[in-house]
Amino acid sequence: MSCHPRTRAFRRYNIRVIWLSLGYAAAILFATYAFRHHLLSGAIVYLIAVLPALPIIGMFVAMGRYITEETDEYQRLLLTRQMLWATGFALSVATVWGFLQAYDLIERVDGYWVVVLWYFGLGLGSVANAVIERRAA
Amino acid sequence: MNNRLRVLRAERNWSQGDLAERLDVSRQSVNAIETGRYDPSLPLAFKIAELFDLAIEQVFTSPSKETPQ
C-alpha cells in the first residue's frame, strides 16, 4: 500500500501479509514439486492444486480486515481509492483480454493472472494517491 | 471545507505530527484536513474541536457560509 501509515492496524496487516507470503511460498513449492513428480492421485490433486490459492485469498481477507480495523479514516479513504483503481484496472484488462481470447486473437492465459493485474492496479492507485497529494500540497 | 486548523496549531506551537499524535491519526491525515483536501467525519471533527476547546464552527467553516473563490 502506498501510504505506509504507522498505525497499529497497518502493523497487524503487515504481519499477516508476511505470514501469508511465507504460506504461499511453501504451498507453491509443495504443489509444484508434487505435480512435477507425479506424487499425487485421486481427489487430493484438487486440494493440492488450490493450496497456493488459499494464502492469496487470505491476503484479500487481510486487506479487508485492515480496512475495518484502521481507525485513521483518511488512510481508509486512500486505501479504498487504491482498491478502486486496482479493481477497475483488473476488470478492464480482463474484459478486453477475454474478448480478444474469445475471437482467438490472442493466446489463453491462466485466470489467476487477474490477481497480478489487481496488485498492479494497486500500484496505479498508489500513484494516483501520490499525484492527488502532490497537487494539493 | 475551510478550517482554522493551521492557525490553531501554530498558536500552540504544535507540529502536524504533534497534532496527529493527539488525535491518534497519521500526520498525512492532519495535512489533508488542514489543506482542505479531506473533510473529516463528524466524530473526528468533534475530537478536533474538543482538543482546542472550541465549538466545531469555530474550527471549521460551514460550506454554505464559505465565500466563493
Automatic annotation (TrEMBL), chain A:
Can the keyword Membrane be found in this entry's annotation? yes
Q: Which domain of life is it from?
A: Bacteria
UniProt keyword annotation of Membrane present: yes
The UniProt keyword set, sorted, is:
Membrane, Transmembrane, Transmembrane helix
Give TM regions: 17-35, 41-62, 83-100, 112-132
Protein name, as recorded = DUF2178 domain-containing protein
State the organism named in the record.
Answer: Sphingomonas immobilis
Q: What is the lineage of its organism?
A: Bacteria, Pseudomonadati, Pseudomonadota, Alphaproteobacteria, Sphingomonadales
Automatic annotation (TrEMBL), chain B:
**Claim: DNA-binding is one of the keywords in the record:** yes
- Which CDD domains does the UniProt record give? HTH_XRE (cd00093)
Which UniProt key words apply to this protein? DNA-binding
- Give the SMART domains listed for this entry: HTH_XRE (SM00530)
* Record-linked Pfam families: HTH_3
| Entries under Gene3D superfamilies matching the protein | lambda repressor-like DNA-binding domains (1.10.260.40)
The molecule here is called Helix-turn-helix transcriptional regulator
In its UniProt entry, the species of origin is given as Sphingomonas immobilis
